[in-house]
Write a structure and sequence with these properties.
The complex is a heterodimer of chains A (246) and B (391).
Chain A (H helix, E strand, L loop, with lengths): L3 E8 L7 E8 L4 E6 L5 H9 L6 E6 L8 H6 L1 E4 L11 H11 L4 H14 L15 H14 L4 E5 L7 H16 L3 E5 L3 H7 L2 E6 L2 E6 L1 H8 L6 H14 L1
Parallel strand pairs in A: 3-7, 3-8, 5-6, 6-7
Antiparallel strand pairs in A: 1-2, 1-4, 8-9
Helix pairs in contact in A: 3-5
Chain B lengths: L1 H24 L1 H22 L7 H14 L11 H4 L7 H16 L1 H17 L4 H29 L4 H20 L4 H19 L7 H19 L19 H4 L9 H12 L1 H20 L3 H24 L16 H23 L9 H16 L4
Helix pairs in contact in B: 3-6, 3-7, 3-8, 5-7, 6-7, 7-8, 7-9, 8-9, 12-15, 13-14, 13-15, 14-15, 14-16, 15-16
The chains are: A alpha/beta (246), B mainly alpha (391).
Chain lengths: 246, 391
């Protein structure tokens, strides 16, 4: 069974759909990259998966259930790292971790063990009692990342993760992702940093004007675009030209 | 440069007008009229019996002195200016000339009105002639003008360091000038000339110094923030970000919330309430008013009506504040029932109403019917919570 399964999903903010008949799935232990131009529908797709937008048609199954069928299982199955960090200005770093742990039903011992490791990994041990107003953009991002990795879900949804992080932060994030993958978790990541996507993603989904233009491994994509030695950058640019030619 | 100022100015006036409308059409406008009317009446009654040795000169000098010393420059500078206006550094004096003119004209009326209001008092207890009182008025205006320029020059030269010291010395000088003048001692005028000379020295010292953009932008932002916060009492200011303080002495409250999944929202809303200034001080303000009325008003029916109205206001405003945000928050994704937040908010407000009731009851202990008011507060709060729609 796929961890995440989208079947013919259409939807958007208004009556006019932004994403059209999307179908793709993510298997256990896979790292999948969601790639597309600005406005291709990446963020809208993610909003449908996390459940802040509901699909007009089609269905989204996470661990076998839709949001309507079993909200607790659905929501407990993923954690989400948004492109712009969303923090509680009134909570300290420590309390962000505690709140997340409470919401996902972790006990205090697990919280202490896991957060200690994460804090060390992201070099934030000394900032436990700080409020977000004192954090830089990168640190805010790290708070989101730590909260996401704290809960050990089956699916991580990461929106544009590398912007604003320092090189060490990026490395820590990649290490964490690799570790979780080995433990069997799946990751859906949207990004513009194509070289990183090419290097780390098992599969890539190219979104274009709200539809899946192509998906698969790098080799699948090269075949689809008929460019046998192309890098992801080349494919991306080919897709751009296609758009301009229309 | 003048064009830049004019555009800014127009935009600023529009913004202020937009909120002023709400401030004066709201209930506070009505209250203000009553307060001014009642205050004026009390004042005129008191003048008839004012003791001859009343220190009117000192009182007037101190109030006016404080008012003129607070002369925060209105520069209308914005954050991007420190990048975009950088090449125009030599042109900036033209800009600031207009800014300071506006600062003066927008602020000088307050001390002038206070001085004019105090003239009947001066008539009653001093023997000043009309010319002397007019001279006093003139000096108040000159003092304001000087203070506006001195504060600006001082801030420019010192980037706002030790501004309180500068303010305090200007305040002391201004008070002395006016006090001496009202005692017909013309040494006050000498002091005034000294102040003018000091201003001249400050102005000369900043020649050639780079413009401290960061400081002036911060001052300007704080000023606008104060205005918005004030306007926020009357209407909803969209871009107002409530400031947050830890209030560590209240940390003990959080210990009452056990670490379990169904307490997730309770964990959050208690902290949101205690640490967000807007929510916290809303409750403190309304509770304090209720308590003061209970303490000083002897007519029981009045205290009941006021306590009831304030309990209603407390419950409904807090409920809206904590439940009606449409911004995305991470807890919207948590695997907990969505009814948990309204339930947690209800629990929080219920507790707050009980605390309010206890405080008000303590202020009324001397009354035989002291238990009625707290019961009323709790009932009104509970009914409000149940009737008011959450979103």
């Amino acid at each position: 069974m796929s961890i995440l399964q989208l079947t013919n999903v259409s939807g958007g903010y208004t009556r006019k759909p932004v994403i059209k008949e999307l179908s793709f799935s993510i298997e256990k232990g896979e790292l999948v990259g969601l790639i597309g131009l600005n406005g291709a529908g990446k963020s809208t797709t993610i909003k449908h998966i996390i459940g802040t937008l509901l699909p007009r048609e089609g269905e989204i199954r996470l661990n076998g259930v839709t949001l309507n069928e079993n909200m607790d299982v659905y929501r407990g199955s993923f954690s989400y790292i948004p492109e712009t960090p969303v923090l509680y200005e009134e909570l300290t770093l420590k309390e962000h971790l505690a709140l997340t742990a409470m919401a996902y039903g972790l006990d205090e011992k697990t919280l202490a063990e896991r957060s200690e490791k994460l804090l060390k990994e992201f070099r934030m041990e000394k900032r436990l009692n700080w409020f977000p107003s004192h954090f830089s953009k990168g640190m805010r991002q790290k708070v989101m990342i730590m909260c996401a990795f704290l809960v050990n879900p089956s699916l991580y949804i990461i929106d544009e993760p590398f912007v604003g992080l320092d090189p060490l932060g990026i490395q820590s994030l990649l290490d964490q992702m690799a570790a979780k993958k080995r433990e069997g978790a799946s990751i859906l990541m949207s990004t513009h940093i194509l070289s990183t996507a090419e290097r780390y993603c098992d599969r890539i989904i190219l979104l274009h004007e709200g539809r899946v233009r192509a998906q698969g491994t790098m080799n699948d994509l090269r075949k689809a675009f008929n460019m046998p030695h192309a890098s992801l950058d080349d494919l991306y640019i080919a897709m751009t030209k296609e758009q301009a030619g229309e | 440069m003048q064009e830049v100022w004019s555009k800014r100015f127009l935009h600023y006036i529009e913004e202020v007008q937009k909120y002023m409308r709400f401030i004066f059409t709201g209930h506070i406008g009505l209250v203000l009229v009553f307060v001014i009317g009642a205050g004026g009446y009390q004042y005129s009654e008191w003048l008839k019996v004012a003791p001859q040795d009343f220190p009117a000169e000192w009182l007037v000098a101190i109030i006016v002195g404080i008012l003129v010393a607070f002369s925060t420059p209105v520069t209308l500078l914005k954050e991007p200016d420190q990048v975009y206006l950088l090449p125009l550094e030599t042109q900036m004096p033209h800009y600031f000339k207009r800014a300071l003119n506006w600062t003066f004209f927008s602020q000088f009326l307050v001390p002038v009105v206070v001085y004019i209001v105090s003239i009947p008092l001066l008539n009653a207890v001093t023997a000043l002639t009309t010319t002397e009182k007019l001279l006093g008025l003139f000096v108040v205006i000159v003092l304001k003008y000087l203070n506006v320029h001195m504060e600006f020059h001082y801030r420019y030269g010192n980037r706002g360091a030790l501004i309180w010291l500068d303010r305090f010395s200007r305040m002391a000088m201004s008070i002395l000038v006016l006090e001496m003048l009202l005692n017909t001692s013309y040494f006050g005028l000498v002091l005034l000339v000294i102040m003018a000379y000091y201003n001249f020295v400050l102005a000369k010292r900043i020649k050639g110094q780079p413009l401290p953009y960061e400081h002036f932008i911060k001052v300007e932002q704080n000023r606008m923030m104060r205005f918005y916060r004030f306007a926020n009492y009357f209407t909803d200011v969209p871009h107002l970000r409530g400031s947050v303080k830890r209030r560590a002495w209240l940390d003990i409250i959080y210990k009452w919330i056990p670490f379990t999944r169904n307490n997730t929202q309770l964990y959050l809303v208690w902290r949101t309430f205690i640490r967000t200034d807007d929510h916290f001080y809303l409750w403190v303000r309304l509770t304090a008013i209720s308590a003061v009325i209970a303490l000083f008003v002897d007519i029981l029916v009045v205290t009941w009506i006021v306590a009831g109205a304030l309990a209603f206001a407390t419950a409904i405003q807090l409920k809206y504040a904590l439940l009606s945000s449409s911004e995305f928050r991470m807890d919207m994704l948590y695997p907990v029932p969505s009814a948990q937040r309204p339930a947690a908010v209800q629990k929080l407000i219920r507790t707050l109403m009980i605390v309010q009731a206890i405080i008000v009851a303590l202020c009324q202990l001397n009354q035989p019917l002291f238990f009625v008011t707290p019961i009323l507060i709790i009932i009104v709060g509970e009914v409000t919570l149940r009737m008011a729609k959450g979103k």
